[in-house]
């Protein structure tokens, strides 16, 4: 049985700098494991420069793993990248549809911005209804 844990190793290259080789399953199911994603992000070698990346040894790569890599690479293709056709297809799709996050709305500190000044919305359904924010946020899933 193989180890499905997503991980990497730095493999010496015959010429030039070492390549980062991906191993295991780079999938949403694996990243659901406690602290794994945090530790993996912290340990990934810095992107850019002459660093090569070899994704071929990875057992699986889904859109979540591809998004992690795409963001780590600064949303740019590495200069040296070895991958399988299926891996390229997933990464190209992630690259095509990745957008910048919209800035978070200013925090109201748990207070209703409609003017009542009472804590609402984040606290309970009852307080949402009492401050009048419920009707506005119910259809858009946005909080006050």
Short description:
With 144 residues, the protein is an alpha/beta fold. The chain has helices spanning 28-31, 36-43, 63-72, 85-97, 125-131, 133-138, and strands at residues 7-11, 19-23, 25-26, 52-54, 60-61, 80-82. The protein folds into two domains: 7-97, no CATH class; 107-144, no CATH class.
Characterise the protein shown here.
Helix 3 packs across helix 4. The protein has a four-stranded mixed beta sheet with strand order 1-2-4-6, with no helix packed on it. It has 144 residues and is α/β, with parallel strands linked by helices. The protein folds into two domains: 7-97, no CATH class; 107-144, no CATH class. Strand 1 (7-11) and strand 2 (19-23) form a beta hairpin. The protein has helices at residues 28-31, 36-43, 63-72, 85-97, 125-131, 133-138, and strands at residues 7-11, 19-23, 25-26, 52-54, 60-61, 80-82. Mean pLDDT is 80; it is low at 123-129 and 134-144.
Please count the helical segments. 6
Class computed from helices, strands and strand pairing? alpha/beta
Number of domains: 2
Order of helices and strands: EEEHHEEHEHHH
Kindly report the spatial arrangement of strands forming the biggest sheet: 1-2-4-6
How large, in whole angstroms, is the Cα Rg? Answer: 22 Å
Calculate the terminal CA-CA distance, rounded to whole Å: 50 Å
Share in helix? 25-40%
The major pleated sheet works out as: 4 strands, mixed
Low-confidence stretches: 123-129, 134-144
Q: Give the integer mean of the pLDDT values.
A: 80
Overall outline: globular
Number of strands: 6
Content of β-strand: 5-15%
């Amino acid at each position: 049985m193989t180890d499905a844990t997503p991980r990497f190793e730095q493999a010496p290259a015959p010429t030039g700098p070492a390549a980062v080789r991906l191993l295991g399953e780079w999938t949403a199911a694996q990243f659901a494991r406690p602290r794994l994603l945090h530790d993996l992000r912290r340990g990934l070698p810095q992107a850019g420069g002459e660093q090569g990346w070899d994704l071929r040894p990875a057992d699986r790569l889904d859109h979540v793993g591809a998004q992690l890599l795409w963001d780590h690479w600064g949303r740019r293709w590495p200069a040296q990248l070895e991958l399988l056709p299926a891996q390229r297809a997933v990464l190209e799709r992630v690259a095509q549809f990745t957008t910048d996050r919209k800035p978070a709305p200013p925090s109201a500190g748990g207070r209703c911005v409609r003017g009542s000044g009472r804590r609402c919305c984040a606290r309970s359904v009852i307080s949402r209804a009492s401050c009048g924010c419920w009707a506005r946020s119910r259809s858009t899933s946005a909080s006050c």
